[in-house]
Input
Amino acid sequence: MSILEIIGGVVLIIACIVIVVLCLMQESKNQDGMTAALTGASSDSFYGKNEGRSREAVLARITRTCGIIMFLITLAVNIVPIFTDK
Output
């Protein structure tokens, strides 16, 4: 194993742990059907208009970014050994 593979593996493990923690921090979005009708879930509320700046939106954005980073690192860890083998 080369140094690049070890570093890539460590960064990949860290990215996986961060994604799991971020997913656990997010609230579930299961308000549909009758529940939404009873509670009055509407996008006309203050929260609905500002959901792009809310904590959940920030967590979703960070989770998406970490997922992309994890995907790219996974590709790099699997492709780098092909070009570095002698």
